[in-house]
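#struct-pred
JK: can someone run the complex with tryptophanyl-5'AMP? inputs below
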Amino acid sequence: MEEKNAKKVMLSGIQPSGDLTLGSYLGAIKNWSERAEIFDCYYFMADLHSITVRQNPADLRRRTIEQLAQYIACGLDPEKNTLFIQSHVPAHTQLGWVLNCYTMFGELSRMTQFKDKSAKNAENINGGLFTYPALMAADILLYQPDYVPVGSDQKQHVELCRDVATRFNNIYGDVFKIPEPYIPKVGARVMSLVSPENKMSKSDKDPNGTVYLLDQPDVIMRKFKKAVTDSDTERCVHYDLANKPGVSNLMSIYSACTGKTFEEIEAEFEGQGYGAFKPAVGEAVVETLRPIREESERLLKDKAYLETVYKAGADKASYIANKTLRKVYKKVGFVVK
Ligand code: TYM
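RT: done, structure tokens with the ligand placed:
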């Protein structure tokens, strides 16, 4: 791949553990689709990761396919991007095991996501939840990407991946390319609309805090009109993350959807208060998501097409992934057939 491929490589994934949200879109997918022309891109549905938390099997299957339709609807043309389902490429689990043996207990214990998820799922703190970052490192390193476009919550995992790859390279020579996290300037951490101190999450129990990519316009407008703003008396639209987290979150969303800077937004709503601002953010989101929802709905009627996409994606991904896996197996001393 090194010799023939002049394009830089990009790779990322999303767990189908819930319906895709405005957070997943602004933090990750938007950044992916804007770069399909200049990079060789691999994007997958991280179904293996999602069973670290109990899933309803039928929902998981449905969401995996819906996620593929939404990737395409967000602008990821399957002719230009390799789109696949993680569990269709066994090299992920195979390299995942090897990398488990090069990832330290102490490193895994420090992962914020592990601490958060074990607090939320105290009855099911399983081994997979703990070793998850080693599988994520395998997901990444198999494709030798230059960049991993993610929201800021995944930065720590990408950094661990870099440490594990460097450790491995120091022992065995130049096996893995060391990837860079690629984090958007606005939208890297979209917060809940009802509790702006928490990240907008696809597994949030309160659906009012989260905007889903497939929400209808009236639902989106209702969620934004109800969005929590701040209890300050001046009620002016001004970016101040520490003292006005609710308004600052809405400003980030508006900026990511319209391309306007914070200064432009402050000027636009000067003297108008939150009453005018909240529906304006809602409308900007409705217009951003409308084509995505309409195209997803159209694609979901054509399951046969989606099947051809994920099968072709798995073939292409497996070819690249198996080359890296073979190299790793040889390096660690396995008898390669
Ligand atoms: P996941 O499924 O939690 O989230 C998918 C992507 O969306 C971003 N994101 C957000 N960005 C901004 N604001 C938010 N509220 C928000 N919520 C989610 C995440 O940062 C992420 O980029 N472990 C990963 C999936 C994964 C992966 C990989 C990613 C598995 N293997 C290899 C990159 C490379 C995860 O759980 O993301």
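RT: quick notes.
The chain has 13 helices and five strands.
Residues 303-332 form the longest helix (30 residues).
JK: thanks, will look after standup
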